Amino acid sequence: MKIFEGHSFHIPVLGVGYSIDTPINVAPYGISSVISLVDDGLMEKMREFYCKKFDIPFKGITQKVDDFRAKRITSYLNMVEEIVARKFDELKHSVTHAGGEFEKYLELLPDTSSLKKKLNIGEKGKKAVEEFSKWVHEKLPLGSIDVNIMTKLDQAHQKDGEDLPAEYNDAHAALRGFANSTLSSSLVLSAGMSPRLYSYIENFEDFFPDSEGHIKKKIVLKVSDFRSALVQGKMLAAKGLWISEYRIESGVNCGGHAFPTQGVLLGPILEEFRQNRDQLYTTCLEGYREALQKKALPQPAETPEIKVTAQGGVGTNDEHNFLLDYYNMDSVGWGSPFLLVPEAVSIDTETMDLLAKGSEKEYYFSGLSPLGVPFNSIKGASMSVRRLALAAEGKAGTPCTKGFLKFNTEYTEKPICTASRQYQTQKLQELEEQKLSGEAYQKAYDKIIEPECLCIGLGVSALLSKDLKVASTDKVTICPGPNLAYFDKVATLKEMVDHIYGRINLLSKMPRPNMFIKELSMYLDIFKERVEAFLQNTEDVKEKRNLEKFRKNLQDGIAYYQNLFGEKKREVVQELELLLKKYPALNADL
User: Fold this and answer.
1) How many CA atoms lie within 13 A of 360 on its CB side?
2) Distance from C-alpha of 253 to C-alpha of 249, rounded to nearest angstrom
3) C-alpha angle 352/354/356, rounded to 5°?
4) Beta sheet of 363-366, edge-to-edge order
């Protein structure tokens, strides 16, 4: 079993607002988590709330202030760091107090933690306790306050009718907000490659090693396969920027936006990283050192660290350990289960209860996102209820007030959002003119009205959880992965951490498929749907080629799992065999 100093899991970004203050709740206990930098307006409201709670002077940053988005983000992150530092200091001062926060820190650590063994002081003399207390104050690990930027969300802006420079784009301003903060943590880049944004990182010295080779602000890259990691790692290394961690995320078995591959499964992807990790490291290191030399920057005093982590659908201690031990992961991301831990995230009671009671049938792969990317959710969330009610009243879509997801130029010169009333009204008018039959019309209609306002929906729950005022029309969108269907009750932070480390079991009595089999079943659903659509139009040569590739990848993945689990995990192989019987489409003629 792999031994860690501290925790072997992290909490990934959860929507726009669900993990917006998670570091305040968990970082003092040595647990790392990620804040989304999408909504600066939400951060400003949360900053005001927390400044009042912790008696910190607050001065609002309005949209009239130059570069307000970046300044809001910087101010919020600095405040989070200040509060975490206060709480951490209080925790360290409780080191000799039974039942204090330090004891909770100790209890949360995995039993195999080398740090836990070091901290378990037992019976010691006064001098030993004093030395121990000094060590705790100086060296006790703090959880990292990391941030996430979706590279696709880089909306351009205007002022007084004039286009603003690219550095005022949403993702660029968010990057600047983090870069100007006092944090020493990581920037998690997700949702694809962005050469322009990557080049902008070079403007900030905190991303480069200092005179001692230390990097204050590290870069974490979310990737879906090894090739993507190698290409982007080399690209950034050539700029003198080191990727400290490659975060592999299952294409479909995760919360929020899902980015399905062409049938390439998580197991084979992890296997490629397991076998070629050294190649990734040495290839990037060579380009990195050359770039630092060209920029006349210090070479790292020690060989720079590279971590590889995984997330997406893990739900048991057995799966957690398998990722760590067999695939040699440096950490495992546990996201959606923490939506049932109000002690860790910001979520309103109504939505949390909906998640706890939801069955497999309620959790679904949706078209809710205006980005046109599949989106994991649960039926019955309040934003979806309102969306359907508005459409039934002939008022499909919602007013676009935040505009982070404006991408469509189908009807306009300037991009608009497909969840907006402006877009959906025009799209529905176009549909009426097509004079389609009942079933075809309904299918097209449902697809048009399905996107909903994620800008508000993914952030409003955080405000509701703090009893802050929201508009009566502001409703909740939730982004759980399907794995949450197997958890059926609200938990404390200690209970969820104990579940992760196998000390207790929080899963419901409902049969739960292995995480790899669950992902495979979702890909088989996608494949089946695409095959059925193709058979209605078999002249689509390009789609036929894509489906053949999809099928080949699935078959290769299935063979990999059969070989991987073999006699060691017969129950997983049996799950696999039962699943394949349900999908004759996998062998259908195209």
Assistant:
1) 10
2) 8
3) 70
4) 256-257, 375-378, 363-366
Angle at the Cα of 515 from the Cα atoms of 12 and 317, rounded to 5 degrees:
70
pLDDT tens-digit series, residues 266-303: 999 999 999 999 999 999 999 999 999 999 998 877 78
**What is the spatial distance between Cα 360 and Cα 182, in angstroms, rounded to a whole number?**
43
Tokens describing residue 82: 């200040």
Neighbours of 77 (CB within 10 A): 24
Radius of gyration of the chain (CA): 24
Spatial strand order of the sheet with 307-311 comes to 9-10, 332-333, 307-311, 243-249, 218-223, 186-190, 145-150, 33-36
CB 174 within 8 A of CB 68: no
Angle CA 440–443–446, to nearest 5: 145
Q: How far apart are CA 126 and CA 243, in angstroms?
A: 45
From residue 30, alpha-carbon distances to 33, 116, 312, 320, 323 in Å are: 10, 12, 22, 18, 21
Residue 231's H or E segment, with its range, is helix 226-237
Say if residues 297 and 240 touch (Cβ distance below 8 Å): yes
Q: At residue 94, what is the residue type?
A: S
> In the beta sheet, which residues pair with residue 33?
11, 145
- Residue 149 is given by DSSP the state E
Backbone φ/ψ region at 189: left (φ over 0), alpha (ψ -120 to 50), beta: beta
> How many CB atoms lie under 10 A from the CB of residue 97?
10
Residues 6+ apart with CB under 8 A from 206: 179, 215, 216, 217
Any bridge partners for residue 530, and if so which?
none
Structure tokens at 409: 């130029």
Between CA 266 and CA 523 the distance in angstroms is 11
- Residues of the chain by 3-state class (helix, strand, coil), percent to 5: 50, 10, 40
The token duo for 388 is 């359907």
> Hey, what are 186's tokens?
């990581």
> Of 202, 207, 194, 206, whose CA–CA distance to 155 is shortest?
194
Cβ proximity of 310 and 246 under 8 Å: no
Cα torsion for 61, 63, 64, 70, to the nearest 10°? Answer: 70
Whole-number Å distance between alpha carbons of 426 and 245: 44
**Residue whose entry in the numeric block shows the structure tokens 């979806």:** 384
Banded model confidence at residue 511, pLDDT cuts 50, 70, 90: very high
Residue pointed to by tokens 């994991």: 376
pLDDT, tens digit, 9 for 90 and up, residues 444-473: 999 999 999 999 999 999 999 999 999 999
Q: Which residues share a beta bridge with 187?
A: 147, 219
Ordered DSSP codes for 132-177: HHHHHHHH-----EEEEEETT-----EETTEEPPGGGSHHHHHHHH
Q: To 5 degrees, how large is the angle CA 498–CA 499–CA 505?
A: 125
State pLDDT tens for residues 369-412. Answer: 999 999 999 999 999 999 999 999 999 999 999 999 999 999 99
State the Cα–Cα distance between residues 573 and 513, nearest whole angstrom. Answer: 11
Q: Which two tokens stand for residue 124?
A: 């010691």
- Whether 520 contacts 582, CB under 8 Å: no
Cβ atoms of 530 and 586 closer than 8 Å:
no
Q: What are phi and psi of 580, to 5 degrees?
A: -65, -30
